[in-house]
Specification:
The chain is mainly β. The protein has one helix at residues 357-360, and strands at 2-7, 12-16, 22-26, 28-33, 39-45, 49-55, 63-67, 72-79, 84-88, 96-100, 103-107, 111-115, 121-126, 134-137, 143-146, 150-154, 160-165, 181-183, 190-194, 197-201, 207-211, 220-226, 232-237, 243-249, 255-262, 264-271, 277-283, 286-292, 298-301, 314-320, 326-332, 339-345, 351-356, 370-376, 381-388, 391-398. The protein has 2 domains: 2-79, Immunoglobulin-like (Sandwich); 84-398, TolB, C-terminal domain (Neuraminidase, 6 Propeller), CATH 2.120.10.30. The protein starts with a strand and ends with a strand.
């Protein structure tokens, strides 16, 4: 007989028989032949909200259609999460993500893809030595794509401007969602996080300066960022992974002040428009947001809102909006509760809102979803790239 069902791109419906063997997986609208006498069960899976069934299925749980004798049909509805304004499905799993004006620029296993937030593709460009490990843009829409051996600069239309050889740092454990390449708004300062420090280039791809001896001092480089005045900050753990030492360098490479914060495991950091440096890190068994002023003095430690961290297997990312809201995202497993945690803070450390997958994203880990990229735009929007079984996705949120 025939099952006909509808499932939006926000999720899938699995058809299983009496032995719980999956005989078909439906995304979108589909029809499948089912032998008469099959005991058919429908299971809906989504990274978002499961709103319920219609047609021959009802409710919000697993739908048991019993023994199939006549044609059956069902429709499933998936909804958005709190504060979510949409979701798009990119061609491949996003490994790096950035806003460029109203567009999203995605680094994936094979290409750089520029997409509209309605899901339409502006261009896809094959990148030598892909996959893309980091991505950044400047105010002119130029794109900087970092792979394991090269940094490629693309024009706003995807035309390759130059390619230079550079080997980025490899990162550690789950890793930071923040890109290993950072670019000033005018594109004249380009910093690539490398083993031992950072290499800094100008808009033509010529090297301004390089710092490569930090790890020789017993540090382990974990994050980098560029301030509005084009100061480059590089964060490195000490040899015991107990503290992060943040080194600052002027445009000409002159070393500035060094600040030290309590930060274990993976660290992400970003500058706001006032030149304050914000770090998302874990210290004393919990994650927290820490702020240093432009002089490099640690001034604020935001209170941790999460349960103690019990596993190293996690990723974390930090971004800032044009009005200096801070957006923090992380994922972890190996402790309870499992899942993705998304928080939005003011620059003063006031929590605006949060989404916690164990309560709002039910089943996130068991379904194999893991955030892989984070970006914010100038209009207060947040994009979280993630992977889902058979479904790469980018969830869009509004800060306010």
């Amino acid at each position: 007989m025939t099952f006909a069902g509808t499932a939006a791109n926000y999720g899938v419906v699995r058809l299983t028989d009496q032995n719980m063997t999956t005989i078909f997986t439906c995304r979108g609208t589909c029809a499948v032949g089912v032998a008469t006498g099959t005991q058919l069960t429908l299971v809906a899976s989504t990274p978002l909200e499961f709103s319920g069934w219609a047609g021959d299925c009802t409710g919000t749980g697993t739908c048991n259609l019993g023994t199939i004798v006549n044609p059956r049909s069902a429709t499933v509805t998936f909804g958005l999460l709190a504060h979510q304004i949409g979701m798009i499905v990119p061609p491949e799993a996003p490994r790096a993500l950035v806003y460029s004006g109203a567009d999203l620029v995605i680094g994936d296993p094979h290409t750089v893809t520029r997409m509209k937030t309605d899901g339409s593709i502006v261009y896809r460009r094959q990148i030598p030595t892909a996959p893309v490990r980091g991505i950044a843009t400047d105010a002119s829409g130029n794109v900087y794509a970092l792979t394991a051996t090269n940094l490629t600069k693309l024009a706003a239309d995807g035309t390759v401007i130059w390619v230079i050889a550079v080997v980025p740092s490899k990162g550690r454990s789950g890793g930071s969602l923040n890109s290993r390449v950072a670019v000033s708004s005018d594109g004249t300062v380009i910093a690539v996080q490398v083993a031992g420090g950072v290499r800094v280039f100008d808009d033509a791809g010529a090297e301004r300066y390089a710092v490569t001896n930090l790890e020789g001092s017993g540090y382990y480089v974990v994050a980098s960022a560029i301030a509005p005045d084009k100061t480059v900050a590089v964060a490195a753990w000490d040899s015991n992974f107990e503290q992060a030492h943040v080194h600052h360098y002027a445009v000409n490479g002159t070393a500035g002040p060094e600040s030290i914060v309590d930060a274990k495991y993976d660290t992400s950091m970003v500058y706001d428009s006032q030149g304050n440096l914000h770090l998302l890190a874990t210290g004393s068994g919990q994650w927290s947001l820490r702020t240093s002023d432009p002089a490099g003095v640690q001034s604020t430690v935001f209170p941790s809102t999460s349960v103690p961290l019990m596993s190293l297997n996690f990723v974390a990312g930090l971004a800032t909006t044009s009005d200096d809201h801070l957006v923090a995202v992380r994922w972890r497993e190996g402790s309870s509760p499992f899942g993705l945690h998304l928080e939005v803070w003011t620059r003063a450390g006031v929590l605006t809102w949060s989404v916690d997958r164990p309560t709002e994203f039910g089943g996130f880990i068991t379904l194999g979803i893991e955030p892989s990229a984070l970006a914010t735009d100038q209009a207060g929007h947040v994009a979280v790239g993630a992977t889902y079984p058979g479904l790469p996705m980018i969830a869009l949120f509004s800060v306010m």
